[in-house]
Specification:
heterodimer, A: alpha/beta, Rossmann fold, four-stranded antiparallel sheet, globular, B: mainly alpha, MetI-like fold, 2 domains
Amino acid sequence: MTPPATRKPLIEFRNVNHAFGTRPIVHNIDLTVGESEFVCLIGPSGCGKTTLLRMVGGLLTPSSGQVLFNGRPVDGPEKEISFMFQDYSKALLPWRTAAGNVSLALEATNVPAAQRGPRIKELLAKVGLANHADHYPAQLSGGMQQRVQIARCLAQEPSVLLMDEPFGALDAMTRQALQDEILRLIAVSKTTVLFVTHDLEEAIYLGDRVVALYPNPGRVAQVFDVKLPFPRDQLSTREHPEFLRLRRELFDFIREGEA
Amino acid sequence: MTPRAKVLWMIGSVCVTALIVVAWQMIANYSGIPAVFLPGPDRAWRALVTGFTTGDLTQLSMATVERMIYGWVLASLAGIVLGAIIGSSKIAREYVAPMLEMVRPVPVSAFMPVVIAIVGLSGGMVLIVIALGAIWPVLLATVHGVSSVEPRLMEVSRSLRLGRLQTLWKIALPNSQPDILAGMRIGLTVSLILAVIGEMLTSEAGLGYHVLVAARAFRSADLFAGVILLGLIGLVSNVALQEIERYMLRWKQR
């Protein structure tokens, strides 16, 4: 369960267990994520994938075991780790414009007011919202709202991006556009990504590795290396024999787990 | 509503008002109720005009409005600050909430003798009573708004490592804006009522005292003029606040 030897380990789960009351949620998780690696967590509901993400984000402390970031145990939200939520409509401040929402991350790190304006402009441009800076979330489509959240996360200049089913609520076209956008942004910034999804194809399309989990309690079942060339392309990648092979393998695996 | 329907509705409501004024005039003229008790709208209007041109109605109105606004601002500020403190701490909420629930239903007029005993029969007493009465809607709205932030937003705040004060200032208080503004609107109405009652009790100059004296002297036209003015003050302040609310909550409109 370790990344290729060329990568320096950045996030490590060491024998991590978590239970809500007496009900175990995740069991004996050992997993290492390397620097600049894109790892997708996949599995049926109840496999604790979101729980694992929240541990790295410092929003949840495991019942036992350790979650390490850069070799140090995580004991609260880290400045360098950014968390992106699925429910964009709840995760944005509805009373702030797109620019204001991005600004929140800059205010949190005490960026002087004079420097915020140009930074916000640049970030919104990066996610294709240059012309929507003054719009309130209620005036934006779901995809645009999620773009605002991406911009807010990028404003933190994180070395790790945690994404909890970020595109799950979006329509297929928007989802594909945002998948490519994330890959493009990550390729430049070399950010490490831990990405939770229940969409097999999304996991293969995005990831360097796909970690499949068993449910009740959540355990690491199998890790799949994705040896698909970059940059990935919605058509050619998805028609690549390796993509189809992995898709088949994962599909069988999930069906097995459900049986 | 289409603009056309809006105009029709407005014409309709103006007609109804006009009809009521006409009916009032008829009753005053032909019902046999003595003019010392019921003036017609014509006499009330004349009393208003003379009051503003030769009398001191402007000054009296200003005095009452000033009292109302001072008390209201005091109540709103205190309500927001206290509400933010109580709302953002679970412990404070648990300790203070039962007491708030007990004190809140007590009519403020019942506190008046207490306040009079402490500060005397003065303008300061009126101000304190207004603040005491108008603080409740704002205080309770703020407590509710600050303590009912969307849990996801609290996680966003944690994830961004915002401090307690930053979370309160940037998330919890803006989140309470709709509640607070609604509370302030109720508070403004309460303030006007208490300003009038306070003036009647303390004989401080203002429309409240003016109305009382007019009634005692059977100057029914002046009495009605005062009542109409108070109604107008209530209406205008409410509409103004509604507009402010609409501007501040523009993010809610799609």
